[in-house]
Write a structure and sequence with these properties.
The chain is an alpha/beta fold. About 40% of the residues lie in helices and about 25% in strands. It is built from eleven helices and 14 strands. β13 and β14 form a beta hairpin. α4 packs parallel to α9. The chain binds adenosine-5'-diphosphate and magnesium ion. The site of adenosine-5'-diphosphate (ADP) has 14 residues, from α1. Magnesium ion binds next to α1.
Amino acid sequence: MQLTRLHIENLRNIAALELALAPGLNVFIGANGAGKSSILEAAFLLSHAQSFRAGSVDDLMRRGQVRMAVAATHLHKQGEKTSALIRENSRWIARNDHTEATQISTVIREVTVVCFEPGSHELISGAGRGRRGFLDWGVFHVEHAFLAAAKRYRRVLHQRNAALKRAAGDHELDVWDSELARAAEPMERMRRDYFARFAPRLVETLGQFLRELGDSTIEWEYGWSETIGLQEVLMQRRAQDRMRGHTSRGPHRADWTIRFARAPQRVHLSRGQEKLCALACILAQARVHADACGEWPVIALDDFGSELDLDHQHRILEWLRQGCEQVLISGVEVPDALRHESSAARVFHVEHGGLRGLL
Ligand SMILES: Nc1ncnc2c1ncn2[C@@H]1O[C@H](COP(=O)(O)OP(=O)(O)O)[C@@H](O)[C@H]1O
Ligand SMILES: [Mg+2]
């Protein structure tokens, strides 16, 4: 898919901005604090309902304002659609083709944007929650039943935890153990199916970006002992879970790890290698989406030139030429690897939350 128009209102330092985006490369350049990342953030917001940066959604709202809006026209194989997210009174109003949606998920499902940014290394070095969330976003976009299954699991997990906290009897916990194991099954299956598509794509991408580290393997960790069924594990863990007041095993503890022949543990990676790993994960996810849905997500690369050395910039541009539809790149200047092909890109000069020349 491609974003053809992006409208931003009251997001960080952007009061009001309307952008006509091109297919292929769109490069946003400007001084620090000009608003380049905020433009990428606006696009990302439409597909995640949250930022890629830390902080709450309401921190994105331009100081002193009470309403923030992001809207886009996006082009798919089937034609053009519009989506809008409006934030008011700490609540979302979501619209698809100008019709208000009852669920925000129906709007964010329409737009797919993946983003690599200066904090992306946390996908590798950070806690499992980030990796689960990353994977689940991918599953959500290719498996329409996933959201309902994940919500159901969350609800039952919450109920089992509440029962543990109020020291409910064994009879009641037997019921929750069985309910939780049943709720875990479809969610777990969809995650594993997705992972089976994602892992080989990731290995392939890592081979292109980090070949110096040798062959890679990607491992899925279930969140409980995989040789025994979840219901039995919950039963075995009941005494510990009662003491802790929460459920210590289950798909809410799932994780995945990357190991390289020449860097078997995460701590063996440099910060720069963590970044390249994270970028490989993001691009592999984009690829899986394209394989499954027949269209590419928009790929956003924030501060591309300063995050990656020239050799890797070239390798990544080569990867992007494999067929992806639209790329949004930001930087203080046009990245070195793009200097010779900047004529193939639409370049936007960002200044004080607007575009130079339009101020
Ligand atoms: N809630 C907010 N209200 C107003 N301005 C903000 C808010 N949050 C951040 N900013 C400002 O928005 C500007 C744009 O930030 P950013 O998009 O990260 O810049 P760039 O990527 O061009 O360096 C910065 O000057 C920042 O201080
Ligand atoms: Mg920035």
